[in-house]
Amino acid sequence: MRFYMVLLGLMLMSCSLALASDPSPLQDFCVAAPNTPVMVNGLACKDAKLVQADDFLFRGIHLMGNTSTDVGSKVTPVSVAELPGLNTLGISLARVDFAPWGLNPPHTHPRATEILTVLEGNIQVGFVTSNPENRLITKVIGKGDVFVFPIGLIHFQRNVGNGYAVALASLSSQNPGVITIGNAVFGSNPDVDGDLLAKAFHVDKNVIYEIQSKF
């Protein structure tokens, strides 16, 4: 009897481990059909008989992004929105171009871990651990270096050179999402109440209003 109880316990543990992982695709592919009225956790599948090679193709990742932005960087995503063949495959990427001293501001990906590979230049990377430590993990990395940002943690990249820099980010979701901290906190629609943010950031509310005006 004791043997069977142990065996049952092991089976239950195996089930819990299996349920903790993402489900595997149940077909060869599920090319996204964005115009379908069907609502699912992701995108519905295009009829497999209508799938073409172009559904799995994205062109132009070699092209430099326009870094003439307020922060001096440009992200070119290749997620399921740009490449329908990624649907259900749990992976995507992005090219990140940096002007000299350009910044990819602090942000999070709620659904993905990110691996960043530097193709050119020197980039300061970093992320902040969760409460209560809020420890900053940061390093300057160069061409050929790879750095990982754990899922959900606030992270950033900054070009620390006088020339242009470029990196390729790989993400563990076909739709990783991005929450840019400044935009979310100070540029929400409608605005988060100034008194609330003043108390949260320990500043006068006029400082909050000034920051909000920039978003």
UniProtKB/TrEMBL annotation:
UniProt xrefs under PROSITE patterns: GERMIN, PROKAR_LIPOPROTEIN
Disulfide bonds: C30-C45
Localization per Swiss-Prot or TrEMBL: Secreted, Extracellular space, Apoplast
Any one Pfam family match given in the protein's UniProt record, by short name: Cupin_1
Annotated GO CC locations: apoplast
Keyword Metal-binding appears in the UniProt entry: yes
Domain of life: Eukaryota
Span of domain Cupin type-1: 59-209
Keywords: Apoplast, Disulfide bond, Manganese, Metal-binding, Secreted, Signal
Binding-site positions, Mn(2+): H107, H109, E114, H155
Residues involved in oxalate binding: N104, H109, E114
Family: Belongs to the germin family.
The name this protein goes by in its record: Germin-like protein
Lineage start: Eukaryota, Viridiplantae, Streptophyta, Embryophyta, Tracheophyta
